[in-house]
Amino acid sequence: MNLIFLGPPGAGKGTQAQRVAAAHGLVQLSTGDMLRAAVAAGTEVGLKAKAVMEAGELVSDDIVVAIVADRIAGPDCAGGFVLDGFPRTVAQAEALDTVLDGNGMRIDHVVEMTVDDDALVERISGRFSCVACGAAYHDRFNRPKVEGVCDACGGGEFVRREDDNAETVATRLRAYHAQTAPLLPYYRERGALRPVDGMAEIDAVTRQIEAVLDGGGGD
Ligand code: AP5
């Protein structure tokens, strides 16, 4: 099963992708995580992406398409994957179609998480994650069960993202509405779009997605 999780910054794509990937034995492919790893490692891609990401704008299509094409062709993705944060432009979606065709693959569902812009700002400004395993938490909505200890791996060190500030979030939201929202009609026309209410609490969103994967939902 191959999935795309689509939605604005802070909609819960990463939170849900991590859960669904673990439950179904899928590989989570987050372009944001891959780019942040490249920035941290100081690779050529990382050097090109750093300033763009800090500004909240989109990294160029050719860079992200090359990263994703490389990963999808990896043997671990043969059993299925969740794309989290990709595609983000129509050009990326078209390139993905070509990559999938070339690998004899297809997308089964495009899960769209709908969340109000005001809620997104609150979610992003309260977010932190585990340094060791990347599990996402929130100051208010999703704290570790034991204070200071990651539920997933037991790690004790947490980090906040550099682009999670009010100014950058506004730019990221504008980029979503201008460049990524046109993907909704793209996938709707292909009969693949499955909207879920991303305003619901985290477990309820997971249940909606599981219902989609079981054959319910979609438009
Ligand atoms: P990326 O890392 O993909 O960031 P994003 O799309 O802005 O999404 P986020 O990771 O901020 O949010 P999310 O939807 O995963 O929400 P989360 O689950 O963490 O991209 C970063 C940058 O990289 C981009 O700006 C761009 O520069 C570049 N980039 C990446 N991909 C690219 C591409 N394809 N093309 C070009 N450039 C690209 O949840 C957020 C918070 O809310 C968490 O604290 C969580 O605990 C909480 N939460 C989650 N769900 C709920 C809920 N239902 N109720 C209450 N709280 C919730």
Estimated share of beta-strand residues: 15-25%
Bound molecules: BIS(adenosine)-5'-pentaphosphate
H/E element order: EHEHHHEHEHEEEHHEH
Low-confidence stretches: none
In angstroms, what is the radius of gyration? Answer: 17 Å
Q: Could you estimate the helical fraction of the residues in percent?
A: 40-55%
Q: What is the helix tally?
A: 9
Termini gap: 19 Å
**Overall outline:** globular
Instruction: Give, in spatial order, the strands making up the sheet with the most strands.
Output: 2-3-1-4-8
Give the helix/strand class: alpha/beta
Biggest sheet character: 5 strands, parallel
Mean pLDDT: 94
What's the number of extended β-strand segments? 8
Which helices and strands, and how do they pair?
Layout: E1 2-6, H1 13-24, E2 27-30, H2 31-41, H3 44-55, H4 61-72, E3 81-84, H5 90-102, E4 109-114, H6 117-125, E5 127-130, E6 136-138, E7 158-159, H7 166-180, H8 183-189, E8 193-197, H9 202-213
Helix pairs in contact: 1-9, 2-3, 4-5, 6-7
The structure holds BIS(adenosine)-5'-pentaphosphate (AP5).
Which labels suit this protein?
47% helix; alpha/beta; binds BIS(adenosine)-5'-pentaphosphate; 9 helices; 8 strands; three-stranded antiparallel β-sheet
Give a written overview of the molecule.
The chain is an alpha/beta fold and 219 residues long. It has 9 helices and 8 strands. It has helices at residues 13-24, 31-41, 44-55, 61-72, 90-102, 117-125, 166-180, 183-189, 202-213, and strands spanning 2-6, 27-30, 81-84, 109-114, 127-130, 136-138, 158-159, 193-197. The strands form 2 sheets. It has a 5-stranded parallel β-sheet with strand order 2-3-1-4-8, sandwiched between helices. A 3-stranded antiparallel β-sheet has the order 6-5-7. A hairpin with a 5-residue loop joins strand 5 and strand 6. Helix 2 crosses helix 3. The two termini are 19 Å apart. The chain binds BIS(adenosine)-5'-pentaphosphate. BIS(adenosine)-5'-pentaphosphate binds at residues 7, 9-15, 31-32, 35, 52-53, 56-59, 64, 85-86, 88, 92, 123-124, 126-127, 136-138, 141-142, 172, 198, 201-202, 205.
